[in-house]
Amino acid sequence: MVDPLAGHDGVADLLVEDETISAVGKAAAAGSGGDVLDCDGLILAPGLVDLHAHLREPGFEHKETIETGTRAAAAGGYTAVCAMPNTDPVADNAAVVMEVRNLADKAGLTDVLPAGAITRGLAGESLTDIAEMAEAGVRLFTDDGHCVGSSRVMRLALEYAKAFDVVICQHAQDAGLSEGWQMHEGYYSALLGLTGMPSEAESIVVARDLALARLTAGRLHVTHVSAAQSVDLIRQGKERGLRLTADVTPHHLALLDEDLVTYDTSLRVNPPLRSAEDRESLRAGLAGRVLDAVATDHAPHAAEDKEQEFDQAPPGTIGLETSLAVVLTELVEPGRLSLTEAIDRLSVRPAAIVGLDEHGGPLTPGRPANLAVFDPAAQWTVGDRPFFSMARNSAFMGRTLHGRVLHTMLRGTFTVREGEPTR
Amino acid sequence: MIKHLLSINQLSREDVLRVLDTAESFREVGTRVIKKVPALRGRTVVNLFYENSTRTRISFEIAAKRLSADVINFSTSGSSVAKGESLKDTALTLQAMGADAIVIRHSSSGAPHTLSRWVTASVLNAGDGTHEHPTQALLDLFTIREHFPSFEGQRIAIVGDVRHSRVARSLTFAMTKMGAQVTLVGPPTLIPPEAPAWGAEVSHDLDEVLPKLDVCYMLRVQRERQRQQFFPSVREYSRLWGLSRARVDALADNALIMHPGPMNRGVEIASDVADLPRAVITDQVTNGIAVRMSLLYLMLGGDARRGTDAADEAVEDAPGGSDPVLESAGETEGASRG
């Protein structure tokens, strides 16, 4: 059992009664006469929490639905997912937020925390009814997919949000420097003849937003950090005491711009896969807690959307079913992160960022039984069995990873058992 | 020989020389009255052009026809593509119709790579986006070799919009591979900062470079780039990086002037410069046919035929020549009738 918040890393029994953990430790098994799950050699951890997933519903049900997206999440060990608001209609009002929540409740596979848009229609101009959405349970606001370009609008968002203790989450990307972009700007973009987006397209906006966070004392979260300069800026911002958090995706931690030499559209992601130096900085940043969380940026697309010329394929990779294995394979196995740190970045910290008290542990008596059980050594090849997501556009397709989720439990009920979703 | 030609980097130095040597033979075919050999009889070559290109399409068409292949021109306007058919479905359709080679021109970098994953036919890149144009590079090398015996140590400047030029990429990779010294010349906004990693030198001063050159290769400058502010005005571009009559005087006497066409006379090259004897621009066009014949022959037929006993017999039986594929179709027929 690995439970960072309780400081637990060792062999233990855990008793679940109804929705809650009722006992932990050697005594736990004794009182049990019920269903016994032998987890010998497996890891029991708090269920994972994703700060950044595109569940596509309402509006893009041909790519993913809340049901299929949360089924994929549960299969990946998640018990809570933050759903991005770039749906159709956009989640820029309480009605859409409630609809997303209702659909998630009906599916019953993970908790879904809908994110709200910062600006109406993601247009970057006028603020949404942040209070109304906060009352409907929204904890995180973002125009993800678009950057809030106007310094004035970003400043007002950071200021206004303070009254409701919610997070303003930025997709940092300078519009001018990213015009027509197809990949990271560098040696490989020049070689492949693909229009580049320099790392500075991100870091310029991060630098500005840190200044605005300082100006407003607002709460800023930088999502899918991809560039080394951004990591440096966030480190400095944290050292100066800003209310600042950040996440990084599994694909930016694992893959590189040079992987695009085959023009594989499943590797076209936004922000783009960057250089080896950037990746190294992201890995170090995650280990050093400059980057708080691993967030998937799960971005499902229909096959026909991705089976196109490189520049015409929409960016994005699915990630919910591979994120834990990618972190285990790329960071834990090589000794860059301990298992406890991995669970911290995949569950504890993201839950704390959005105030999901029921998730991320600690796994102590009286707490909700939101759990994941995985085999850290199980080897599998991505794509060797169908995805539970509707989409197949995985940047890790064909790669061999270590770590397979066997059981996921949401409030005492198995959502995944023996690797198979229960509903 | 390679299955697909997607990038010039797929070819080794030896491969390049083999393509050029084979093209020498086909160059001769183009001078005959009957410019046709039976090498690819019964094979189907599809020209799949998503971008307008008169010279490259016609060059490939003539090349395939001179090899006796059946040629289908599939241009995207007025076709199923105009009705919204995807590249994948077009590819599968051509595949189902039995295409042996697909020559593709596309505005998206990497489209030939993508296509090659969906078809068993050989894919030839006839220019993809701002990526590569490998057959242009090979015909340029062929043209240069007509004037200079060896590429080793040869000095070539490629002048203009290197950043967006598929011609510049393929030619730079090809020339450096063959041992030449390549200098990329143009405004800093149009030369990728990563270009030195290609093994090329970079200069922003054309006048300083000109006297050292064996070949001065001018790239087409699209006015679109001025609208995108890569340079402030066409006039300024022309003054600093255009090949004027005065600049030609700075070139060595035997230095060549080349251009992949189509030219913007008066922008990157002065009109009278383009018509000088040392401007071998029409030779490039002529040689393009021979080089493309060579590639189609080597990729589709050459290796297989040479490897079989049947081919050996054909060589022996061939009247008056050592290589049946180079016998023009008309002569062969005439001989058999006789």
Termini separation of chain A comes to 26 Å
Discrete helix count of chain B: 14
Task: Assess the beta-strand content of chain B as a share of residues.
Answer: 5-15%
What is the share of helical residues of chain B? 40-55%
| Lateral strand order in the biggest sheet of chain A | 5-16-17-18-19
Beta-strand content estimate of chain A: 15-25%
Q: What integer is the average pLDDT of chain B?
A: 89
Chain oligomer state: heterodimer
Number of helices of chain A: 13
Given as residue ranges, the uncertain stretches of chain A (5+ residues, pLDDT < 50) are none
Please tally the β strands of chain A and state the result.
19
Q: What is the end-to-end distance of chain B?
A: 36 Å
Structural class of chain A: alpha/beta
* Main interface by residue count: A-B, 19 and 24 residues
Query: Helix-strand pattern of chain B, N to C?
Result: HEHEHEHEHEHEEHEHHHEHHHH
Please compute the radius of gyration of chain B using only Cα atoms.
21 Å
Portion in helices of chain A: 25-40%
Overall pLDDT level of chain A: 96
Q: What is the gist of this entry?
A:
The longest helix of chain A is centred in the middle third of the chain and has 17 residues, at 200-216. Chain A is globular and about 65 Å long. Helix content of chain A is 30%, strand content 20%.
